[in-house]
Amino acid sequence: MQSEGWPMYHRVERRARRLERVMEYADVDVHALVLDRLGATFAEAFRACLTCNATAQCRAWYEQSDEDPASFCPNWTSIRRFVRNRTAEQTKSSP
What we know:
The chain has helices at 9-25, 30-35, 40-50, 55-64, 76-79, 88-93. By secondary structure, the chain is mainly α. Helix 1 (9-25) crosses helix 3.
């Protein structure tokens, strides 16, 4: 693939996979997330993932999934608003 020659290609791809895994873990409605604010919420989440300083924790979580990502993921608060199966009480108490 031509884009693999871009120096950041593999880093961006790895972080995109981790963000996808966090969203799967949280059972995020990705469609709703992408549509929110015309895609700006998703773009901000991806940008935060690319510049995140918790790479080691995220990589360890991605490989073993033994820790709740809320303890290190800067996107956790924003993406949890898009969890599919939330109770009415969770919906009321979320920011």
